[in-house]
Specification:
The chain has three domains: 86 residues, Alpha-Beta Plaits, CATH 3.30.70; 231 residues, FAD/NAD(P)-binding domain; 197 residues, no CATH class. Helices cover 30% and strands 23% of the residues. The protein has 14 helices and 24 strands. Strands 14-15-18-13-22-19-21 form a seven-stranded mixed beta sheet. It has a five-stranded parallel beta sheet with strand order 7-6-5-11-24, covered by helices on one side. Helix 4 packs parallel to helix 7. The two termini are 42 Å apart.
């Protein structure tokens, strides 16, 4: 095989154009290419360069020695230098380290989000027959519960945007990009599974891959079926209420249906909103620490304005909806940045506690709502939020109290719904006109409210400073009628459950995993952490 890493083509190019370019850079006729596979596609949109698509591909040819001879010519060396033409002996594939032996304990996996799903899949595929418990409902029933809340305001604290099959990422843009290192091909393994279960093949090569919630709704049950076909088991509407411990080691779990599941292995992949479970684990003596996270608002603009800023006024419509990623430092040294940007998306009421409001963003696969939204958030540290802790809250859990306090204030400001405010009114600390409630693209009801009453003043001032800074990158980002929604409080877990090199917590046999444990930030990093945790569980079971 030959890898070519820099083929630049027009946005309306076809696969035939790509085939022609690959043949040209390797000195053969297009008919001699027996296979061509895209391994990466990105958009080149820097201001000094004409807008184009840049591809990396792997090709196979009838006579690859002929290509080698060409690449040793003057012209071939020039192409190799400009387009990165190199030979590849074989592609690295993911390999799980071991299979189950007779007598090993069935692992219990708490949570069915990306971390729990991938952990369960790898364990099931290798003979460990895990039990997955999920406090929420299967995806079809979960969608009904969420839509009932959005339309009628009836929140089910056990099944909502945060809890239920697929985890919080189910109601999102379904982004699969990640900056994590991946020498073991775990990311490739996630892509393989997701594509087999219905994700578009493009997620494996797009530089900013996404699935969209509508495809996630269909993909997640297909992953579950693979797990159960391989010997795993699911129990929905089932919460972890306690762990059983002897000699500082797990011996079982007390479940919310009153049953006891006897096991020496529990994987906690409950997500960042499982505050009650995290508190229970803390009471049982599991070591934890407070960590930095971020809070703020969700900010909405016209997608067309974003497109023209990112790609130019005459951008090719084939490109769809443009994303952005922004960050800056305030004069006070705080980080302000965009988070979970949803092109062509919707702002969603992502609450999971009574009398609390939290928001998130969601896009469907077409990204065609006409609006772009992202969280604009400000970093906070334990020093910022430890004063929010209740008298009986340990310091390492104080971030959860801080989140809850902001969500309660948002509930009050929005009279039980999402408080919304124009950016100019936010700056001036005044409530916007009531007609604002009919604007925007959102799931869940909105009410004109003063978001300045929700956030600490230092956070509000930092958001304003950030919005003004971002307008230097995206003209109009700080427009007066930019719509703000509150509160964006669940960017990541405020807690890290300490684990050692064997992935076990201070109580042996308990494996903290994914976002809720403080080891991931997004679908892909959580899924990869789930695979790593499955490997650790398997190796520790075999070695014991």
């Amino acid at each position: 095989m030959i890898r070519i890493t820099s083929i630049r083509l027009q946005p309306d190019c076809s696969l035939s154009d790509l085939n022609l370019a690959a043949a040209k850079y390797t000195g053969i006729d297009p008919s001699e290419i027996t296979d061509l596979r895209i391994i990466r596609k990105s958009i080149e949109a820097r201001r000094k360069e004409p807008l184009s698509l840049v591809y990396s591909v792997l090709i196979s040819a009838a006579d690859e020695k002929k290509i080698l001879r060409f690449l040793n010519t003057k012209k071939g060396r020039s192409f190799a230098e400009r387009h990165g033409c190199t030979f590849v002996e074989k592609e690295e594939e993911y390999r799980f380290p071991c299979t189950a032996k007779n007598g090993v304990s069935r692992p219990l996996i708490v949570g069915s989000g990306p971390a729990g799903m991938l952990c369960a899949y790898e364990l099931a595929a290798n003979g460990f027959a895990p039990l997955v418990i999920e406090r929420g409902l299967p995806i079809d029933q979960r969608i009904q519960s969420v839509e009932n809340y959005w339309e009628n305001g009836r929140l089910d604290p056990e099944c909502n945007v945060q809890f239920g099959e697929g985890g919080a990422g189910t109601f999102s843009d379904g982004k699969l990009n990640s900056g994590i290192s991946d020498k073991a091909s775990r990311i490739k393994e996630v892509f393989r599974l997701f594509i087999e279960c219905g994700a578009p093949e493009s997620v494996a090569y797009d530089s900013l891959p996404h699935i969209g919630s509508d495809i996630l709704y269909r993909m997640i049950p297909a992953v579950r079926k693979k797990i159960t076909d391989l010997g795993g088991e699911y129990r929905f509407g089932c919460r972890l209420d306690d762990i059983l411990v002897e000699n500082n080691s797990v011996t079982g779990a007390l479940l919310s249906d009153g049953s006891v599941f006897h096991t020496d292995t529990i994987v906690f992949a409950g997500g960042h909103s499982a505050r009650d479970t995290i508190r229970m684990l803390h009471r049982r003596g599991v070591e934890m620490s407070a960590k930095n996270f971020a809070v703020g608002v969700r900010c909405e603009h016209d997608q067309e304005m974003i497109n023209q800023n990112q790609w130019g006024a005459d951008y090719p419509k084939e490109l769809g909806a443009a994303p952005y990623k922004l960050s800056c430092k305030t004069q006070g040294g705080r980080s302000v940045y965009s988070f979970c940007m949803c092109p062509g998306g919707y702002v969603v009421d992502a609450s999971s506690v009574m009398k609390g409001i939290a928001v998130n963003g969601m896009s469907l696969s077409a990204r065609d709502s006409g609006k772009a939204n992202s969280a604009i958030v400000v970093s906070v540290t334990p020093e910022d939020y430890k004063g929010s802790a209740k008298a009986d809250t340990p310091e390492e859990l104080s971030g959860m109290d801080f989140q809850n306090e902001l969500e309660q204030k948002a509930y009050v400001a929005g009279q039980g719904h999402i408080p919304v405010q124009y950016y100019d009114d936010f700056k001036e600390n005044r409530i916007s006109d009531p007609f604002i409630e009919k604007e925007g693209r959102h799931c869940g009801k909105t009410v004109s409210g003063n978001i300045r009453e929700v956030l600490p003043e230092v956070i509000s001032e930092s958001i304003i400073e950030g919005m003004e800074c971002f307008s230097d990158r995206i003209r109009g980002f700080n427009a007066d009628k930019t719509l703000l929604y509150a509160v964006e409080s669940r960017t990541s877990s405020p807690v890290r459950i300490v684990r050692d090199d064997s992935f076990q917590s201070s109580i042996r046999g308990l494996y903290p995993c994914g976002e809720g444990a403080g080891y991931a930030g997004g679908i892909m990093s959580a899924a990869v952490d789930g695979i790593k945790t499955a490997e650790a569980v398997a190796l520790n079971q075999i070695l014991c």
